[in-house]
Amino acid sequence: MIKKVELEITSDCNAACPGCARTLNKESLQINSFTLQDLQRIFPDDDYSNVEFKFCGVLGDPIVNPDCLEMTRYLVSKGGYVEFSTNGGYNTAEWWSELGNIANRHPGLIHVHFCIDGHKETNHIYRVNTKWNIIERNITAFSKTAPEKHATWIYIIFDHNEYELETAKTHADVLGFDFATRTGMRNSYHDWIAQIGKKNSKQTKKITTTGSKEHSKKQVVKDLDNFIKEYKNKKAIDNNKKDAIIRSIQCKYIHEGEIFIASNLTMWPCCFLWDSAFKNKEGILDKLELFEPNWNSLKHHSIDTIREHPWFKDLLAASWDPSHELHFSRCIRTCAKNKAYHNEIKYADN
Predict the structure, then answer these.
(1) DSSP assignment of 200-233, as one string?
(2) What is the SS3 assignment for 5?
(3) 61 and 41 in contact (C-beta within 8 Å)?
(4) How many CB atoms neighbour CB 287 within 10 A?
C-alpha cells in the first residue's frame, strides 16, 4: 500500500544552491515538468485520504511548475494531504494568497515548509539567486490567508547565518509559522562555494558547518563509508557485520510505503536513488539497462504495474547485499543504521 508519494513536479528552480545536485551537475540537467493532466492520469482515484503527497524533489522547486496550484486543488479535493518544500522566492503575492485560501478551505490538508536559511542579511548566501524582499512578500501573503501552523520555517544553521537565527524565529512566530532547524549530512561532510554578488561581478563565499551545527551521526555514516570502501577493495569482511548493516536498512519504499516520482515521470523507491540515477553514480543506469526500455516510466505504465516489476518486488531488497550484481552502495550509505544519514530536524518547541 502506498502511504507517501514524493513528487518532483519540475526540475526547474529559481535558485542555485551550491550543494544542490542541479548546481553541481549542470551538464546533466534537463528541465522537465509534468502537468496536471499527467498527475490526474497517474492518480485517478476518488479518495486519497490516506496518502501523503510531498511536492519536493531532488532538482527543482515545486512552485516553479505553472500547474502547481491546480495540482494542489486536485489532490486535496480527493482528501490527499499535500506538503510543500520550497525556498519561497518565486511566484506572486496573489499566488501565495490563493494557496493560503486553498489551505483554509481544506483545513489540515496543506502544509508548507519554507526552506529559508537565514534572514535578510544571509539567506541569499546559500539560497543563491533568491531575493529577500520577494520571500518576505510571499510568506507574508501566505500567512494572511492560511490558518496558523500551516507552515514551518526550516532553517539550516551554517557558520555564517547563526547570528540571524533568533531574528528568524521571532519572524516565524509573528507569521504564525512553526520554526525548526535542519542539519543535513551533506552539509556536515562538505564545505560549499557559493557564487554571490550583483550582475556580472560575482563573488565567492565559502560556506562551512562546524561544531554543534554538524550532524550528530556523522561518525556513523563515516563508518558506513569505510565499510563500503573495504568491500569495494575486496578486503576481508566480517559477515556478521555485513548482515547487521543490511538488516539495519530502513527503506522508504519497502518499510514505509513511499515512492518517488521524478520530473521525467520515472518512478523510484526514494529520492536518493533518483539522485544517483540523475548523476549515474555507481553506473546505476547502466546496470538497470538489463531491464526493458521504460520499465519504470509512468508515461508507459501505472504505479501498480511498476511495483510488480522484479526490481521493485524482489531485487531491490536482495541488492542491499554488496555481493549482488545490482548492488548500489547508496542504499547502505543513506538508509542503513536506521537512516543515520537522513536530515535531523529540531522544532523550536522541542
Answers:
(1) TEEEEEEE---GGGS-TTHHHHHHHHHHHHHHHT
(2) strand
(3) no
(4) 15
Sheet holding 344-347, edge to edge: 267-268, 258-261, 4-7, 52-55, 81-86, 110-115, 151-156, 178-183, 344-347
Cell 542504499 belongs to residue: 331
Q: In this structure, are residues 78 and 46 in contact, taking their beta carbons and an 8 Å threshold? A: yes
Q: How far is CA 255 from CA 40, 95, 248, 309, 339, in A?
A: 26, 37, 11, 18, 12
- DSSP class of 313: I
Distance of CA 349 to the CA centre of its chain: 24
Q: Which domains does the chain have, with CATH numbers?
A: 4-213+251-302+342-347 (3.20.20)
Query: pLDDT tens-digit profile of 280-339?
Result: 999 999 999 999 999 999 999 999 999 999 999 999 999 999 999 999 999 999 999 999
CA distances from 174 to 93, 146, 259 (A): 18, 14, 36
pLDDT tens per residue across span 57-116: 899 999 999 999 999 999 999 999 999 999 999 999 999 999 999 999 999 999 999 999
Tell me the pTM.
0.95
Q: CA 119 → CA 63, 124, 146, distances in Å?
A: 21, 9, 22
